[in-house]
Structure formats: structure tokens, C-alpha cells
Amino acid sequence: MDISIERLCIANGLKMTGPRRVIARVLSEATDHPDVDELHRRANRIDSRISLATVYRTVRLLESKGILERRDLGSRRARYEPSGDGNHFHLIDQSTGKVLEFSAPAAEVLLRDIAARHGFDVALIKIELFGHRLSGGTANGDALVEAGSKAGRAE
């Protein structure tokens, strides 16, 4: 099985130990934004010998190599997701901690226009909007994804 995070680790010259392979697999299969404790729980289901310290060391290493990005999504714990070169948007429900990833082409155009008026050429747009979900369900059929859960990522 060719796992993208494992491939990135190898491309960055990292030795792929058994625990690193498991952690890379868990991260590649995550459809949410797990914190280190959740990564440890998931990795431990695969290999019970993987310690929390190993997960912390691996996450820090992957972050230092640019393979993983640390996100502050309003909780007290950092959450992680694979690094990406594309524009990236999150809506975070401060009441529940649930996260919705979405695309916003019209917003990207507007933001690039604003930047251009100020003499900037935008290379990348990353936005995190914090608020509280209004009652009445989800808009456009999008489903919120709780950061740290196993639910699918909404885009």
C-alpha cells in the first residue's frame, strides 16, 4: 500500500521505522484533524507498543520536515493535518469543536483583489473562521466534521 505521508517521509530522507510507518498510515487515513492523543489511540489499535512519546517525537519530526501542519482550531490541543500547497479554509464551531473544511473560489478572488490593491501577490490563502453554528442544520448539505473524530472530511 502506497501511503502519501510515508512517501513524503522517504522523499525527505527519514528512516521509516515500524512505529513511524504506523503513525504515517494513521495520519494518511485521517479524515479529520486529530490531536496527538487521538493519533496515539489510533496508532495503538494497530500496534500497542507505540508510546505517546513516540507519537510526539514523530509528529514534531514530520512538522519540522514540512510534511505535517500544526493547527490551532480553538481547542487547547494542537491538531494536525498533512501539509498542502493549496488554499485552505476551515469553519470552527466554538461550541462543539466541530470543523468544516470548505472551498470558496469567490472569496479567493476577492482576497487576491484586495491584496493586489495593496501591492501584494498572494501565494497562499489559509483561513480559519471561528463562530457558533446557527440552529437549523447545515447549509448546502455540508456536514461538520468534529476534529478528532473519524468522520469524513467535508469539502
Reconstruct the topology from this structure.
Layout: H1 4-11, H2 18-29, H3 36-46, H4 52-64, E1 68-71, E2 79-82, E3 88-93, E4 98-102, H5 105-117, E5 126-131, E6 145-146
Parallel strand pairs: 3-5
Antiparallel strand pairs: 1-2, 3-4, 4-6
Helix pairs in contact: 1-2, 2-3, 3-4
What does this structure look like?
- This protein is 37% helix and 17% strand.
- It has two domains: 4-82, Winged helix-like DNA-binding domain superfamily/Winged helix DNA-binding domain (Arc Repressor Mutant, subunit A, Orthogonal Bundle); 88-146, Dna Ligase, domain 1, CATH 3.30.1490.
- The relative contact order is 0.16.
- β3 (88-93) and β4 form a beta hairpin.
- It is α+β, with helices and mostly antiparallel strands and 155 residues long.
Number of individual domains: 2
Helix segment count? 5
- Shape call: globular
SSE order, as H and E? HHHHEEEEHEE
Give a short summary of the structure.
The chain is α+β, with helices and mostly antiparallel strands and 155 residues long.
